[in-house]
């Protein structure tokens, strides 16, 4: 019954949100419905060399404003990663904020991309921006994408021209406790 009520609330909220909004605005508002909640995930592209394999994966939609959403991504005890989404000039930007345990910025941080268009209500694509190409030359061909629907959120990465592909899926139907604040936040 609880899942039915949650799904009904989500559909009602999604329908109300979707009226007269661009697809990326629907995506944004849908993600904001989960603000304050944490969810467990699993790697959808397991490999022997994946440093995330066998570790508890949790995302926490911790902070939402009119033009920003912060989502720490915890890998086991590692709290170094936060996905930072911002709405800028009608498009969504994704940046990766990487920090050390003392809160200082990692040498490789603030990389990502800006959606090239308004996308779709359930998926947004972020091709690597110029800042990323300069910071991490081998990542110049990266494309990240995030999907969201009533039951799942996925974070994905494809390095075009290589075999590099990563995907993690979070179950939005089961809230979990957050491991606490991300490093530096």
UniProtKB/TrEMBL annotation:
Residues 1-18 form the signal peptide. Keywords: Signal. It comes from the Bacteria. The keyword Signal applies. This is Secreted protein.
